[in-house]
Design brief:
It is built from two helices and four strands. Helix content is 33%, strand content 28%. It is globular and about 50 Å long. The mean pLDDT is 96. A hairpin with a 7-residue loop joins strand 2 (36-40) and strand 3 (48-55). It is of the alpha+beta class and 95 residues long. This is DUF4936 family protein. It comes from Duganella radicis.
């Protein structure tokens, strides 16, 4: 399963959030072998940016570990609003 998590961040909080997410993703990579990506939309609107974390090919139970890591890293203190998670899986080729 691949996880796509998107959320908003104020321009003024972007650098602090980036540092927190980078540290969190490094810890997740060490503990679970999942390399996360951090992306953002190119434009900001009204001083707010949209960011996305991507975690590909996650193992069973990773979503719960990610939530725990988010709280441990203090990520929620830097975002504006909620984190939204989307889950996708590979499409199996037709036989």
């Amino acid at each position: 399963m691949d996880l796509y998590i998107y959320y908003k961040v104020k321009d003024a909080d972007a650098a602090s959030l980036q540092a927190a997410v980078a540290a969190m993703q490094a810890t997740l990579a060490r503990r679970h072998g999942v390399a996360g990506q951090l992306k953002r939309r190119p434009e900001a609107k009204d001083g707010v940016q949209t960011w996305m974390e991507v975690y590909a090919s996650t193992p069973e139970g990773f979503a719960a570990e990610l939530e725990r890591a988010v709280h441990e890293a203090g990520v929620l203190s830097w975002i504006a609003g909620l984190r939204h998670t989307e889950v996708f899986m590979d499409v199996v080729p037709c036989a």
